[in-house]
Amino acid sequence: MTGTIVALAVRTRTGTIRTEDGSRHAFSDDAVVGDFDTLVVGNRVSFDVDRARPRDGAVTVFREPVRSDETAGGKPGVRPDLRYVGFSQESNVRFYRFDAAAVSPLTRQYVVTVDLALLTKHHICVQEAPALCLRKLASDLKDSRNSQRHELGNADLLAFASTRAAALARRRPRHSFRPRRGSPPPALPRDRHAPGR
User: Fold this and answer.
1) How far is CA 192 from CA 128, 185, 187, 188, in A?
2) For the chain, give me the number of helices (H) and strands (E)?
3) 106, pLDDT greater than 70
4) Global pTM?
5) Cβ-contact 78, 68 below 8 angstroms
6) 122, 132 in Cβ contact below 8 A?
7) Cα–Cα distances in Å, from 154 out to 109, 112, 120, 151, 163?
8) Closest-CA residue to 62 (of 13, 5, 123)
9) What span, in angstroms and rounded, lies between the C-alpha atoms of 46 and 32?
10) What is residue 59's three-state secondary structure?
């Protein structure tokens, strides 16, 4: 299914999607394919519905479209919508598939391969791979219009891991909350008239 994000609560990390027929589906950050923090109200998303969740909750929420200047037939000005349609796996390599629906009726399919060992090497969750592949594909299509196979390689994952580490470092507090070392505060004078003296 597809719809539009109409509400986001950053504090509770939840949101609401409205479909074209007006139905609403709630989702939480664990249902998002990719990074919840990149979502904004107004994003178009594709998703599945889990009837077991309260109020038919949305799962596998994936932001779309990502537009690029790639065109069907190489004609400039026609920008396709890239949509994640699933993956297959052979040995330790996953093949993530994306459809590119251009303004014309022609739809092309692209494949981005990822070696799962590289995800492990750079401490990247497999759930983040579709979003990274989509970003890689959108970038590649700006330079190579006709190539249908792409690879999310070591350099791409290293760049992502470095960017994420820098973002985490910026979030850490700059000040230490440990007490300062030095002389203890002076003792207060005792009351001579206190009981027990």
Assistant:
1) 69, 21, 15, 12
2) 3, 10
3) no
4) 0.54
5) no
6) no
7) 24, 13, 11, 9, 14
8) 5
9) 10
10) strand
What are the φ/ψ torsions at residue 14 (nearest 5 degrees)? -135, 165
What domains does the chain contain, in order, with CATH numbers?
Answer: 2-64 (2.40.50.140), 66-169 (no CATH)
Which distant-in-sequence residues (6+ apart) come within 8 Å of 32 by Cβ? 39, 61, 62
Sign of CA dihedral 123, 141, 107, 39: positive
Per-residue pLDDT tens over the stretch 38-95: 888 888 888 888 777 666 688 888 877 555 443 344 444 445 667 788 889 999 999 9
Give residue 174's pLDDT band: very low, low, confident or very high (50, 70, 90).
low
Query: Phi/psi of residue 153, each to 5°?
Result: -100, -175
Task: Please give the radius of gyration of the chain, using alpha carbons only, rounded to the nearest integer.
Answer: 25
